[in-house]
Specification:
By secondary structure, the protein is of the alpha/beta class. The chain has helices at residues 21-30, 90-100, 120-141, 155-161, 198-206, 224-236, and strands at 5-7, 15-18, 38-42, 47-56, 61-70, 78-84, 105-110, 148-149, 153-154, 166-176, 185-190, 210-213. The protein folds into 2 domains: 5-70, Hypothetical PUA domain-like, domain 1 (Ribosomal Protein L25, Chain P), CATH 2.40.240; 78-236, Alpha/beta knot (3-Layer(aba) Sandwich). Strands 6, 7, 8, 9, 10, 11 and 12 form a 7-stranded parallel sheet that branches. The chain has a 5-stranded mixed sheet with strand order 1-3-4-5-2.
């Protein structure tokens, strides 16, 4: 029987730990778990922790961590995804699936055709939401490390600071991914709904990016990262 997994945003070790309020509420009020029930925790360090509930109240849940062991090995391919901001649930979908596919970092990107506008408090809330999407994906897929979700950036700023051995911008008229040699680190730039403009593609190329295509069909903005990461992991990663 697979144990329920929970991310704890604090260092864990053998012994008793009081869980944060959000996890405590979910365990006691939603899952209705009871004292003695087993669960598995991870703190993003790459370690996993087997534990059992020793105190379950309405507002307070305490666990006894009994065992620590190495978690799921990460892909040898470090991938930074620059994802053009999109509307509705498309961004959530891209972050969730990219996390399941082993992405290391994700940066939401403001581009010419981006229809999403985020400022101040709303931007902070969206960033917290995206990070929770990534955490939930890790809890489900078994990853022991949570990918870094960076605050949104203008495309020009992201291009200047992105470091990777191989940098690719997806474009329908380009060479296939398989034409490139195996890198140790990879950066993907994917446009929003409507894609990147020709000027933005040229800007990316001037910044050291190579144009690459995934096939003959034009993919939606939330589909492209799923396919791109799956192909990259098959060619150079852990698939």
């Amino acid at each position: 029987m697979r144990l329920s997994r929970f991310f704890i945003d604090a260092p864990l070790s053998i012994g008793e730990h009081e869980l944060p309020e959000a996890q405590a509420h979910y365990i006691s009020r939603v899952l209705r778990m009871a004292e003695g029930d087993a669960l598995q925790l991870f703190d993003g360090s790459g370690q996993e922790f087997r534990a059992r509930l020793v105190d379950v109240g309405k507002k307070r849940v305490v666990v006894q961590v009994d065992e620590c062991f190495a978690g799921q090995i990460e892909s040898p391919l470090q991938i930074h995804l620059g994802q053009g901001l999109s509307r509705g649930e498309r961004m959530d979908w891209a972050i969730q699936k990219a996390t399941e596919l082993g992405v290391t970092e994700i940066t939401p990107i403001f581009t010419e055709r981006c229809e999403v506008r985020l400022k101040d408090e709303r931007a902070d809330k969206r960033l917290l939401h995206w990070r929770q999407v990534a955490i939930s994906a890790c809890e489900q897929c078994g990853r022991s490390r949570v990918p870094v979700i960076h605050p949104p950036l203008l495309l020009t700023d992201w291009l200047k600071q992105t470091q990777a051995e191989l940098k690719l911008v997806l474009h329908p008229v380009a060479e296939p991914l398989v034409s490139h040699a195996k890198p140790s680190s990879l950066a993907f730039l994917i446009g929003p709904e409507g894609g990147l403009s020709d000027a933005e593609v040229d800007q990316a190329k001037a910044g050291g990016f190579h144009a690459a295509r995934l096939g003959p069909r034009v993919l939606r903005t939330e589909t492209a990262p799923v396919v791109a990461l799956a192909v990259a992991q098959q060619l150079w990663g852990d698939f």
